[in-house]
Amino acid sequence: MRRRLLGFLAVILAGMAFPGAAWTARSGDPALAQDPEVAAALQVLDAWAAASVAQREQPGLSIGIVYDQDLIWARGYGFADLAGKVPATPSTLYRIASISKLFTATAIMQLRDAGKLRLDDPVATHLAWFRIRNAGSGASAITIRHLLTHTSGLPRETMGVNWSDLRFPGREEMIRNLPEQEAVFPAETVWKYSNLAVSLAGEVVAAVSGEPWPQYVENHILKPLGMKATRAAPRAATPGLATGYQRRVPGAPREVEPFVDIGAEMPAGSLASSVEDLAKFASLQLRDGPARGAQVLSGSTLREMHRVHWLQPDWRSGWGLGFAVRRVGEQARVGHSGGLPGTTTRIDIAPDDKLAVIVLTNANDGDPQRYVDQAFTLVGPAIARATATPRELRSPDPALERYVGTYTWKHSDVQVMVLNGDLTLIVPDAENPWESRVILTPLGEQTFRLTTAALTYAAAGEAVTFTLDATGRAVRLSTPYQYWVRK
What we know:
Layout: H1 36-55, E1 60-67, E2 70-81, E3 86-87, E4 94-95, H2 100-113, H3 123-126, H4 144-149, H5 162-165, H6 171-177, H7 195-209, H8 213-225, H9 266-269, E5 272-273, H10 275-284, H11 299-306, E6 310-311, E7 317-319, E8 324-328, E9 331-340, E10 343-350, E11 355-361, H12 368-388, E12 405-409, E13 412-419, E14 422-426, E15 438-444, E16 447-451, E17 463-468, E18 474-478, E19 483-486
Helix pairs in contact: 1-12, 2-7, 2-8
């Protein structure tokens, strides 16, 4: 256990002036979230996420956990709009940026499965106007597969200083400028991420299907999946869209990032969606069977997209067809991150575990990866055990509820909650709050013993006492050496 936890929670933590209430839809939660161990892990994740958003002074964040075909848990923290004090919720729309690439890849694979194209077709077969100077002599033709796996060697962007002046060329300008650009590497020699490549994949979708890319995505992916709130081509005035903010500057208020029209690069990053809607896309990745209705791609095609088509030299990461692929410990995950001015996003899916985590933020420094990884760390093992051996929910003693809450001393917070029937104390902003937990074992009226398996924990075995007010509500948590006052 880290040094900060060796004393009785004696480290002075940052203050936790929580920016807005966390939100959740409590009705309709699947039974899995009620499993005692899963429920305990979710409570700890909830406390950690709230503390992290507050400590990092993030504007807003929405998070959801999908198991198989259910969104089992979702929360919002902070605000979708700071000025209007609009709470962030699981239904808040965010620009999901490069997660949009997964929808373009899905469209390509639908057309491939329909026999309208082949992945190894040269791009020029479907886009007669495609012209770009090749890198080196004897370079092979750039194919659709190269576009989806980022092995085309194409430049990262369409021509222009797009990310500085935030002006992106439209389709006609992109086509006009392409012959003046040069491929950086010969195709299929190195992995090089390219927004231009996926933009061209979107052009292939339009050319082959006869529908503009936004309409194709809406008609053949969003509508069948029931993603009613998602917009393929959002605008600044799109109702419910979170306001984007620049990174935090100490001592200064967050500045609003302008809404950016990314022009011809729409297929690479334009969608706006919510945790609730993206949960439906995540569940698609965990299904099998032939393509029909909400099964917009067959299970076999989805597995093909999730497989490694380009392996990085470290053998820990690579690229599928549209999907990033990485190993975290012994777990294989597929997904994508996203970033536009004022938004950073992430979706990670572990197909073998039927588990997915979605995190959407409205700040350049939202760091969604941090929250995704913590969700997998805290909740993933509990779900694995619960689904292997389902258990009945333990009914906690109702009298314990009087002690539940956040207690503070000089801006150092500890949180008391009931986890799996036990009164438990955690440090909510610890790197791993599950490891910070201490069971409070009853000794007598309002007195408990600190019970922990960590033998190095300095206060292990000692007693804590709660002081109650006239209504019977706990207002103070004390040891012989220190006390905390309830917030």
